[in-house]
Specification:
Elements (H helix, E strand, L loop, with lengths): L2 H40 L2 H34 L2 H35 L6 H30 L4 E4 L2 E4 L2 H5 L4 H29 L6 H34 L1 H8 L10 E8 L4 E8 L2 H7 L24 H32 L6 H9 L3 H15 L4 E3 L3 E2 H4 L5 H34 L23
Helix pairs in contact: 1-2, 1-4, 1-6, 1-12, 1-14, 2-3, 2-7, 2-14, 3-4, 4-6, 6-7, 6-11, 6-12, 6-14, 7-8, 7-10, 8-10, 10-12
Length: 460
């Protein structure tokens, strides 16, 4: 493998690891605010117990996200200098806005959120929680703005081979940004919904009798049942926007080689890029045409339209995009079935009717949001190839001229460290859940009047 392929794998590994943690913190910040507001409104200690537990997960996830984000940003200089050389006039300010409007906000108020329970008035602590949640969302906003601009660049002009901004409003609100941002925020909400439901189910299986775990399990299930149909609807709109601006990506997602109508929705196929055909196809007749054009005979773009006269392929790798898209959709359908099934069960029989097998299913789905997010991310990013900035800068033009063995060495080091960190992260979450399940009666009661509540990280 040459420097280009190794650099792509390395950046892909870094961003894959990094994106997992903001996916949790974006929505978990708002869930913590919900828990705190419910406690203030009801004086039910279970809501504050939920806050006390999940704020630890938030702190752990936030720290992991910051560390992995720093190492990822180094690669703009070490592996991809051509990116900043050509589009740095646009990417640089957008990244700076993210730091100034989001990261500083999170950093300033995170300490109050974590340690200010008995040091500031209750309203100030609630306000700090809101500002941290708002900061995580603003961080997502600016990063998605930059990423969306790389897919649908607008509001700039090229001078001497360098991009210069001409309309910042057009850059920020580029054609794919609203769809991409909404899709990502909903993905974060679903990730947190199933994480809360799954870890709470684990606590119930471990004999948790506090009432908090059952309350948060229901909250996670209901949130998942609410968000998944919205996500499916927004995913459809996002797909239509992609069809308009990046038809080659949609062709790869559908595994469609020849432009035409009555295109089936392929449930299974093995794309063969050499023969430029699919093997072992299983599909629903006219399904792709119906989904993408809302007409059975609607025309769907084909991959063969994106091959230059000299044979240069101008479409993304087909198999990777084809299968990552199906993993994302399949995970989403599993979320729909489980969340709606359990919601119906709770509505008809009460939450006490949920037995061990449904709880075990929820535990298995604890990190399903990560799977769907990564699959969707791969669909989006691999689907942009061979471009780094669509129609402006190719991936090949941006890569650094460094020896391949050097990139391989750092790639191996990254993968080893990330594997250890991931094992530690998941292990700590289940350790915290197990300890909470076995600590019934040991947690102090929380004061009901507003000035203070118990310390978030008590010495136990």
């Amino acid at each position: 493998m040459d420097t280009l392929i190794l650099s792509r794998i390395q950046f892909g590994a870094n961003i894959s690891f990094h994106i997992l943690f903001p996916t949790i913190t974006i929505a978990l910040g708002w869930m913590l605010l919900f828990f705190k507001l419910r406690f203030s409104a009801t004086h039910d200690d279970r809501w504050m117990d939920a806050y006390r537990f999940w704020v630890k997960v938030f702190a752990l996830s936030f720290a992991m996200g910051v560390v992995s984000g720093i190492t990822m940003s180094f690669q703009f200089g070490t592996n991809w200098p051509g990116f900043m050389e050509k589009v740095g006039n646009i990417a640089g300010p957008l990244l700076a806005y993210e730091v100034l409007t989001a990261f500083f906000l999170e950093a300033v108020f995170l300490g109050i959120m974590l340690f200010g329970f008995n040091r500031v008035p209750s309203w100030a602590h609630t306000g700090a929680t809101f500002l941290v949640a708002f900061g995580t969302t603003m961080s997502a906003f600016w990063i998605i703005v930059l990423n969306s601009w790389m897919h649908t660049p607008t509001g700039f002009e090229m001078r001497d081979g360098v991009a210069h901004a001409t309309d910042w409003a057009a850059i920020v609100f580029n054609p794919s940004m609203p769809y991409r941002l909404t899709h990502m925020l909903l993905a974060s909400g679903l990730t947190v919904a199933f994480l809360i439901a799954g870890i709470s189910a684990f606590r119930l299986l471990r004999g948790d009798k506090t009432g908090e775990a059952r309350l948060t399990m229901k909250t996670g299930v209901f949130l998942g049942a609410l968000l998944i149909p919205i996500q499916i609807f927004m995913g459809d709109l996002h797909g239509l926007n992609t069809l308009e601006h990046q038809p080659q990506k949609v062709a790869a997602m559908e595994g469609n080689w020849d432009t035409g109508g009555n295109v089936p929705l392929l449930l299974f196929a093995l794309p063969d890029e050499e023969a430029r055909e699919n093997r072992f196809e299983i599909g629903i007749p006219n399904g792709a045409s119906l989904i993408l054009t809302h007409k059975a005979n609607g025309v769907v773009p084909g991959l063969n339209d994106f091959v230059a006269e000299d044979g240069t392929v101008l479409h993304p790798p087909v198999s990777a995009v084809f299968w990552s898209f199906r993993i994302m959709v399949g995970t989403g359908l599993a979320m729909l079935a489980i969340s709606w099934g359990l919601t119906f069960m709770i509505w008809r029989r009460g939450d006490d009717s949920i037995g061990k097998w449904p709880l075990r299913g929820l535990v298995l789905m604890s990190f399903s949001g990560w799977l769907a997010t990564l699959a969707g991310w791969y669909t989006t990013e691999i689907g942009r190839q061979p471009w780094l900035v669509q129609g402006v800068l190719s991936t090949k033009e941006a890569v650094a001229d460094v020896p391949a063995p050097m990139v391989l060495g750092t790639l191996i080091a990254y993968l080893v460290v990330y594997a250890l960190l991931m094992a530690a992260y998941v292990g700590v979450i289940f350790y915290l859940a197990n300890r909470a399940a076995n600590s019934e009666g040991t947690r102090p009661k929380l004061p009901r009047s507003g000035a203070a509540v118990a310390e978030v990280l008590p010495a136990e």
